[in-house]
Amino acid sequence: MNVDRGDDGLSLIELIVVVIILGILGTVIATIFVNTWKSEEAVRTQSQATTSGQLVSSEIERAMRNAVAFDVSADGSTLRVDSSLGGNRQCQAFSLLADGAHMTVTAAPAAASGWPIWQKNIAQSGAPFFVKSGNTVTYTFSALSKSDSGTVAAAPVRFTGTAYMRNAAAGSLAPCW
């Protein structure tokens, strides 16, 4: 007698093998996605830090190009500039404190301190923020790349540069400071 045993189902061993293979594939795919998200966050925060640092650098250089007079505080944390932009006087100041970079811009005499935070993730980079030498100022700082949770996501981006006064004749800070 010939009994026909159909293959209508899976054996327990076949089911266990399929579950193990699917588990391994699921783990591999999940690991790839997690690593992709972490890489994307590192690139995004590094890009934000670079953009923030470039903004600070360009504003300092713009202020110095149009400066009539400028001064750097004794500790190198503050730059005060009396500039002439488009024929109008502007009092500008940049300061690096523990909570970030502060800036003020006004047409009238400016307050000595208490300026709003301009860029949060800017920090001192070993050297003073500003160093004055004749009609130039050298700036050095780091832009921190922080994640949304506030942890440092990648190495800081270090900025250093020298900004020059375009005006050869030195003026006075008197109207501003």
Automatic annotation (TrEMBL):
The chain crosses the membrane at residues 12-34. Signal peptide: none annotated. InterPro entries: N_methyl_site, Pilin-like. It comes from Microbacterium panaciterrae. This is Prepilin-type N-terminal cleavage/methylation domain-containing protein. SUPFAM superfamilies: Pili subunits. It comes from the Bacteria. Pfam families: N_methyl (PF07963). Keywords: Membrane, Transmembrane, Transmembrane helix.
